[in-house]
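notes to self, project folder thing:

trying the whole complex as one job this time. last attempt i did each chain seperately and stitching them together was a nightmare. two parts in total, labels are on each line so i dont mix them up again. if this works i'll redo the older ones the same way
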Amino acid sequence: QVQLQESGPGLVKPSETLSLTCTVSGASMNSYYWSWLRQPPGKGLELIGYIYYSGSTKYNSSLKSRVTMAVDTSKNQFSLKLSSLTAADTAVYYCVRGGGWRAIDYWGQGTPVTVSS
Amino acid sequence: QTVVTQEPSLTVSPGGTVTLTCASSTGALTTYSYPSWFQQRPGQAPRTLIYSTNNKHSWTPARFSGSLLGGKAALTLSGAQPEDEADYYCLLYYGADQLPVFGGGTKLTVL
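result (full assembly):
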């Protein structure tokens, strides 16, 4: 079955850049959108953005200047970089299959990220 | 800025029926909003229950169904079970120029 697994640091300092990778197993990345979401402690879900397998992207307008996504279909991975971190970026970060009008179906287990010095 | 509104909280009795709704600040929803519904149990990652208004995944319990109701997206739970106590989020699509938007979530209590 399709599985997604996030990886990256659990603790990042303010002003630094967060780098997360999502590894996909059990399915090809071709013909799908792949998204990153986050959930601050005790709050709801926020879509950070998505990337098509071909590399085209769409980002949340409130984060656009700080977000970069990339995809490497040869490794079955896609990634997120979020720069200029503040405490407000503390959240559980999820990678999922789907985005745009294509339904989200499979979710990663999530990786908690804390921004603190 | 587009706002998607859900009931903050609802309570249902075991075995009972409850409907959660999802409304958009832009007006009445259609199937082209491709509404999806997600369940998040305490301490767990979300999982997708319903996509494109009323389509279920293989893992979606039969007691959950999706629809459009009075211009809103709706998730109906018929025969609530204790394990259905969770937060439920909807997600709406607004076209290629904007990211889909999540509702704020509904905390469902089975009591």
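what i see at first glance: Chain A touches chain B at residues 44-47, 49-50, 58-61, 94, 99-101, 103-110 (CB under 8 Å).
need to look closer tmrw
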